[in-house]
Design brief:
Order of helices and strands: HHHHHHHHEEEEEEEEE
Structural class: alpha+beta
Helix content: 40-55%
Number of strands: 9
Length: about 260
């Protein structure tokens, strides 16, 4: 019995010692499949150094366990091995359960950070849009405040008739109206622009009169008279020469006939 027990114990220890490692299983399977390290690296899109680390059981402790677990799964699929069994062997051999938990926590934190960054960008965008809107509104308000305000006084001023301005001279043009209500003679000792309008707004005479000429005018009184050079004009009304010196201002004269007493 004693010899039997010793033999059984020795067999168990030998089985444990001869249990193939992850690297041994991958290396044998690759060689049986007739693949080179370059072939594996190209198919899995990983470096030859990673393939060598897996096959020689020399994965660095500082390596990312989550990535290497993915490499093991992809390698197992390529070689037709049991993925779950090889992953269990990988975890047991490199004691990477804690690392995987850490990686999962890091992954969740990264997702949260990404979400928070998105919210931050959205918030900044909203703030920028609101700032631009406020600036535009303020500028429009300033522009409106600078516009002139329409008041009743400005409307009243706009509706007032414009003052009569001298019409551009028409050389040597005289229009006479054949009415006999009021008659007067204008004698010119120098060139003078003249405009005479009667009570019906009919233009009795208008234009430039040359020095040495005279005109007889008649119309419905009162006659409105505008003279451009009144100092050189002599006016005869009812056989009397009128004194218009008190109506002269800035070398022009404006008055009505008959003269106001």
């Amino acid at each position: 019995m004693s010899n039997t027990q010793e033999l059984s114990s020795s067999t168990t220890e030998n089985d444990c010692e001869t249990t193939p490692s992850l690297g041994y299983q991958l290396l044998n399977a690759r060689q049986l499949a007739g693949l080179s390290i370059d072939d594996v690296a190209k198919n899995l899109y990983i470096s030859k150094a990673v393939v060598n680390e897996l096959e020689t059981d020399s994965v660095p402790e500082s390596s990312n366990a989550l990535f290497y677990r993915g490499y093991v799964k992809s390698y197992a699929v390529l070689l037709g091995l049991d993925c779950d069994e090889l992953v269990k062997t990988f975890r047991a051999q490199y004691h990477c359960d804690d690392d995987l938990k850490t990686m999962q926590t890091f992954s969740n934190r990264s997702k949260n950070d990404t979400h928070n960054n998105y919210l931050n960008w959205v918030t900044r965008g909203v703030v920028v849009v609101m700032t631009i809107a406020i600036v535009v509104w303020w500028q429009q308000r300033q522009s409106m405040s600078e516009m002139p305000t329409i008041t009743q006084e400005s409307i009243a001023v706009a509706n007032e008739p414009s003052p009569r301005l001298p019409i551009a001279p028409i050389a040597n043009t005289v229009v006479e109206v054949d009415t006999k209500n009021l008659q007067s003679t204008f004698t010119f000792s120098q060139d003078c622009w003249v405009k005479i309008t009667d009570a019906t707004n009919a233009v009795v005479a208008i234009g430039i009169k040359k020095a040495g000429t005279s005109i007889d005018v008649s119309g419905v009184p009162p006659l409105e008279v505008i003279l451009g050079a009144p100092q050189g004009v002599e006016i005869t009304y009812q056989q009397q020469t009128l004194d218009i010196s008190s109506y002269i201002s800035n070398e022009t004269a404006k008055f009505t006939l008959p003269l106001e007493q």
